[in-house]
Model the fold of this input.
Amino acid sequence: MIGVDVPQQDGCWPSALSGQRLNGRWVLGLEEAGLESFSTPTAVHAVGELIATAMTASVVVGLPIGEKFRPVRITLGRMSRPAGHVLSWAARAVAPSARVVSATGMRAGGNPWLLRLADAGGTCEVVLKTGDVTARQDRRQLVTTVAALELAAGHAVPAPRLIAADLDGSAAGTIAVLMTMLPGSSTIPRFSSAARLRALGAAAGALQGVALAPRPGLEVRTRALYDMDFAQWRRSAGTSQLLARAEERTAGRPVPDGEPVLVHGDLWQGNTIWSGESCSGIIDWDAAGAGSPGIDLGTLRLDVALFFGSSALESSQDSSGPGSPAADEVLAGWQQAAGRQAEHVAYWDVAAALCTVGDMACCLPGDLVGELGRPDLNAAILTARRDAFLAAALDRLDS
Done:
């Protein structure tokens, strides 16, 4: 298999890409990539030809070297901003006299786009997210985004507010969602205070107060990133004895029940916005749905264990010790905001870890980690921290 990071252009993915997609990464088989066998130069050329029509600035191709993937970046040329008719639609949605002054790609130089608009009343910034009108997954994600943002607004959940949506492409020329821009940054600090970690947990804890019966766009979720087959990905990209043990321990075990609530579905620090030590909101709601609050709590606990390790509150030396004070601070913040004890914490920790593959470089490639302000991390550190988190969760699962 080949993992390809492909930024979208004007809501269009190359039609040749028909594999599974996770956060912009396409997981392709040999046939889909136009290859009969692997060799680094051949694979780079073949994948470059395959996605050239996407007009992307660059892609990252994860090429299997032995039993591991080695990321290779391919530069394909300068990326343009969204098409004029899309920008015109966005401007009209903000104000009749508004015009787009600039459009800046927010992820790998592309979609979603930060638009700066101006009219007689001044300037403002909004976020434009587009999709391919012919791609069922793109439309499903934007439908979910709209449903989640509307629900969030009705319950005062800190999230972008919906400005406009075109879910059939009839007005914008492509399916598109326009939303407000939350002030702040998603950069992940090298060290975190207990207060910040508790605020992170509290942001997730607030969601458990939004009861939600499954509905179109917000269907039942039993884990994070519901539309990605991680078991299949592990079979392709590689697993580990610990992950295999976790699969065996959870196979046939019923998902903990309870009243469904609003679940973000991809709640990690990269999807939170901060102003100092205050979390100003949660972004990227395209995996949201109705499910157990443990889904988001487990995902956040794993995330802080990955980025801060087991001794994040004291130093950066330890990367794989038992447990994680950072994860425990998130739990404490969640429980304080929820006003109750979290249930089945070990199960949801294991479920979160099972949303990874053997080598964490496939899940958090180095360029993404660097963009988030953490160039100090590498695949070996992240994998060791994931394994420590998972091993501790498995020890608690039946205790």
The chain is about 35% helix and 20% strand.
